[in-house]
Amino acid sequence: MSESAKITAEVQKLEQDARIELFVLDLTALGGGVERFHNQRVTGSGVITFDGNDYDALPMEAEGFAYNGTDQQPAPTVKLSNIGSFMTALAAQYGGLVGGKVTRIRTYRKHLADGSDPDGTAKFAEDVFFVNRKANENKIWFEIELGSSLDVDGVELPFRKMLPRCQWTFKDGVGCPYVGSDTDCLKTVAACEAKFGAGEVLPFGGYPAVERARLTF
To answer: What's the pTM?
Structure first.
């Protein structure tokens, strides 16, 4: 995801609005839910709303997201408050959180729901990583080490076979969001365009270039 024009314009200013950092822990691939949190200083309930989603206040530390100009991928670490053993319980239920997706979202204060220019599309390019392992745990902190999807221990590739036909389950509401009256799909790009419109961004779950690549060998 590229950065929005508003973000680009704000970055070029000498005096910028306050930056806001939000985090999403997505455990749906492990059978869990989605946790959203932040570590910003806010008044009231502590909840921050951005792009229609609420983020709860949670003491945390996050570092290591920056790229250093080498071929080595960042390996961020995130320390989350474990007061009440919430993170311990969550990890026990969902395989130590390994394979869970962590997304870091950065925007400016004015683009939050209660800001002067609320806009859920105004954000920096999102940082998406996966939980590689639990690095440390005690009664105060629960620390996880992140990596790319290729770094997660125990993950076997490919996640999906590289086939030219769409691999989503038709009308499942996850991979395929189609809600029309059709009851089947040919699982081709043409069929997807017929349902969602030619020239539109398609939720096509296949690799149509595979067939063309085979012809070049």
So the answer is: 0.67
